[in-house]
Amino acid sequence: MSSPIQKVFPGALGNSWAEEMRRFAKENTVKRLVNQDSSLWPAKEHHIPMVKSNLRWLNLPEQIGPYVSKVTESARTVQEDGLDHVVFVAMGGSNLAGAAVLDLQEASANKRMFLLDSTDTDAIRDVESKIPLAKTLFVFSNKSGKRIETHCLLLYFLDKLKGVGIESPGRHFIAFTERDSYLASLGEQYKFRDVFFDPPGISSRYCGLIHFSLFLTAVLGSGPEQLLNTIIAARDACRPEVPAEENPAVALASFLAAGERKGFNRLILLTEPELFYFAYRIAHLTGASTSSAGRGFIPIFAQQAYALETVKEKCLVVKLSLLKQGRAEVQEFTELRDAGVPMVEIELQQPTDFAAEIFKWEVATALACVAMGLNPFDDGHRQGNFGIPSDQLENIANKRESGLPSARVTEGSTRLYAEGRTRRMISNLSLREALRTFLELRNRNSYIAILPFFKLIPEYIAILQDLRDHMRYALEMPVQVSSGPRCIYALGRMYKDGPANGIFLVVTAEPREDLVIPGADYTFGELHLALAMAEAEALENSWKPTIRLHLAQGAEKGLKELRDVVIQTLAQIHKNAG
């Protein structure tokens, strides 16, 4: 059976990479990991049980077969009952696995499966317009079920099903969660068709085998036996009996650890568009696992290439590809290797390799954290109520202007908000001057994150990509576009607790038409705005330069105006530098 092909080109990190490999072998680190030795990572006494429970992820290769078989049998009965459309409602790691699988060419022909991971009104209406409610199954995936978005979407679709005369709406729902979770209790309350329980105590980012196995089986129809064989092959390739120089997880872990020791904390994941979301899932794993007290990796993804001038300063590069995409060498990659930029090339042989590859990355990330002296299972200071201050949401819903922040600059249909240190450090003379002074807060090792909180239709994606490319070439630094609220759960900890070299642009927009949440005194539009405002506030409170740009006349008009003013700002910065 073919397996992913991995090649490491350590470049400037050659000696450090080799030293990390020798250290892993000398200290029997892989054997201790396989034996689930919780003392490998630093942890306070009361955190040790959490570390031990998370290590159960290493048992998943043996457990995933029966789990997937049970789900496959349930799916068969669902189809027999005439539910031939499926909406996956997921937040966190599971939604990224869903997006990655649904983005594959093999899945493009299936027009009956949809992913909803946002409370954006356009996103909700778009899914609604494509499904016959009476023939649709809603699959909710969330370990705790406490997220406010999950609860609101559940209530919304329950109400919609009742509205079309469905007598037992709960039969249109399945949940994937943990035992005794809030979502499990909702499943019992509303008499869900089925509830599947994940192994307890494992962080979502280390449940990649579960997430990818389920989506590959559901969306691509991959047989459980074929999938299991690729997973077992990956597990065996990473076992302690395999010499360090032949062990792909050890080679990758050594690459990451050597890079972090030398200050290479920007991890550039280069892929073709079909693998953008798979790279996002890797970014979630590595970023969240390593971010602590200003250390760790900042992954940059969803781009196909980067110029040497942008990545030559303290960047690690990983090139991911699928075999069918061809192996033609791209000139930029050759230039990077020749310049000594540390690189890893990974070629997946087939889509079913997703599950096996994410398992390898989980092993490699946990091993790298051993060398880095970081606890990969620590979730840091998680925001209360998942980042939604109730008073802030109440102020938005009740239009209490006195309780809401005031715009630093208002120009045309764009309002710029900034708080804390950032507010004091940027100009209020004009939007262009505010943006110029904000972007000048960067340094040579910075990255820029653009966080749009609205549905990214192709037109908006094209504008944001154009904006991103203008910024990365003009400023010679990585620029990442991460849609919200997905970024809160996948990358939020990395942005807040990781290296302090990021600057952030949160972009919000007035919805075209709002939607009521059954039983709530706020709307989806108000909830979505509260999510964005809370994220901007949390970033600023973590001492990260942050502005929020609100497009008061909607994204369609506002994005074009924003792109134009940013391009003018970049020209001014270039002129001043000259």
What keywords describe this structure?
578 residues, alpha/beta
Topology:
Elements: E1 5-9, H1 14-26, H2 29-34, H3 48-54, H4 60-80, E2 85-90, H5 93-102, H6 105-108, E3 113-116, H7 121-128, E4 136-141, H8 148-163, E5 173-177, H9 182-189, E6 194-197, H10 208-220, H11 224-237, H12 248-261, E7 266-270, H13 276-290, E8 298-303, H14 308-311, E9 315-322, H15 331-338, E10 343-348, H16 353-372, H17 390-397, E11 409-411, E12 414-417, H18 420-425, H19 431-439, E13 447-453, H20 458-475, E14 479-481, H21 486-497, E15 502-509, H22 524-541, E16 546-551, H23 555-577
Parallel strand pairs: 2-3, 2-4, 4-5, 5-6, 7-8, 7-9, 9-10, 13-14, 13-15, 15-16
Antiparallel strand pairs: 1-10, 11-12, 12-16
Helix pairs in contact: 1-12, 4-10, 4-11, 5-10, 5-13, 10-16, 11-16, 12-16, 13-16, 13-21, 17-22, 19-23, 20-23
What does this structure look like?
A six-stranded mixed sheet has the order 11-12-16-15-13-14, sandwiched between helices. It starts with a strand and ends with a helix. Mean pLDDT is 91; it is low at 381-386. It is α/β, with parallel strands linked by helices and 578 residues long. It has helices spanning 14-26, 29-34, 48-54, 60-80, 93-102, 105-108, 121-128, 148-163, 182-189, 208-220, 224-237, 248-261, 276-290, 308-311, 331-338, 353-372, 390-397, 420-425, 431-439, 458-475, 486-497, 524-541, 555-577, and strands at 5-9, 85-90, 113-116, 136-141, 173-177, 194-197, 266-270, 298-303, 315-322, 343-348, 409-411, 414-417, 447-453, 479-481, 502-509, 546-551.
